[in-house]
Design brief:
With about 300 residues, this protein is α/β, with parallel strands linked by helices. It is built from ten helices and 15 strands.
Length: about 300
């Protein structure tokens, strides 16, 4: 099975409006509610791809109860740890006229030291039998900034490949713990390395400890620095739609390729196609299976010798 960790879970609300106008009232044309947070998005896509998936992290309060009820309707196994504080909500407002999305994210509950200890014990137990683990998203209040580094070391001790997808100081500390793979976007890479050049920043990030660095280039695809060399993967054309969850779908593609021991070009093709198919989906954070099948055969993957 594949284990995903979402320390800051959320109930994701998507509102669609005819046009988003500042300082105006809006009539919402569609409301979508689903369990969210980056790791849960990854888990949902992995399950849709046919992988046995387990989700852990934190959930609490009335919002957490809603999240767990919704998660129970999916193939993802719930191993979330209870918190006294309520799970956060996120709100995505989609402008139907332009396709642009405005995101509002609550901070999340304050996790106590006792709750962190319970989670750490649960995580260690779940590593037994895991083929890979993904550590995804922001840290809720109360969790120390080196938490991901601690979890990376636990996974490495257990011999489980670990992917880290976070930002800021948690990424800086986590990458020093030598995860198997990190997947920052261009802004996160620049914050980590100080370089805006994607190739230079990707190489430098790998030098900080990660075995592989996959840099997200937005609509231009992915840049990968791997032990086998450098690769670029791009969709056949730019796609337009709601990008919410597209990066999480890419993580799911990389993880599925990892556990299947697929070659790097196949892993990257899968990640790019899933990401683009998520942008094209009418539901934020889900991927369009038909678009995915069509795009998978069209993704361009090239070795980068620069």
């Amino acid at each position: 099975m594949i284990l995903t960790v979402t320390l800051n879970t959320a109930v994701d609300l998507t509102y669609r409006v005819p046009a988003l106008v500042p300082h105006a009232s809006h009539r919402v044309t569609q409301v979508i509610e689903r369990p969210g947070g980056k790791g849960l998005n990854v888990a949902r896509v992995l399950a849709a791809l046919g992988h046995e998936t387990v989700a852990t992290g934190f959930a609490g309060g009335a919002t957490g109860a809603v999240l767990r009820e919704q998660l129970a309707a999916t193939p993802v196994r719930d191993e979330l740890v209870d918190t006294a504080g309520p799970t956060r909500r996120t709100v995505a407002i989609v402008d139907n006229a332009t396709g642009d999305t405005t995101q509002l994210n609550e901070p999340g509950p304050t996790v106590t030291a006792a709750e962190w200890t319970v989670f750490r014990t649960r995580f260690t137990a779940l590593l037994d039998g895991a083929a890979a683990v993904a550590l995804c998203g922001s840290l809720p209040p109360g969790i120390h900034v080196g938490a991901y580094a601690e979890l990376v070391r636990l996974a490495r001790t257990a011999g489980v490949p670990v992917l880290l997808d976070t930002s800021g100081e948690p990424l800086r500390r986590g990458i020093a713990a030598r995860p198997d793979l990190v997947k920052p976007n261009a802004d996160e890479l620049a914050q980590l390395t100080g370089s805006r050049d994607p190739l230079r920043a990707t190489r430098e990030a790998r030098g900080r400890g990660a075995r592989t660095v996959i840099s997200s280039l937005g609509p231009e695809g992915l840049l990968a620095a791997t032990p086998e060399g450098l690769w670029r993967a791009a969709p056949p054309a730019a796609v337009k739609g709601n990008p919410t969850g597209a990066g999480d779908s890419a993580v799911a593609g990389l993880l599925s390729g990892l556990v299947e021991n697929a070659p790097w070009p196949d892993r990257l093709s899968r990640a790019v196609a899933l990401s683009a198919a998520t942008v094209l989906s009418p539901v934020a954070g889900e991927f369009d299976p038909t678009a995915y099948a069509e795009l998978l055969a069209q993704v361009r993957v090239t070795a980068d010798v620069a």
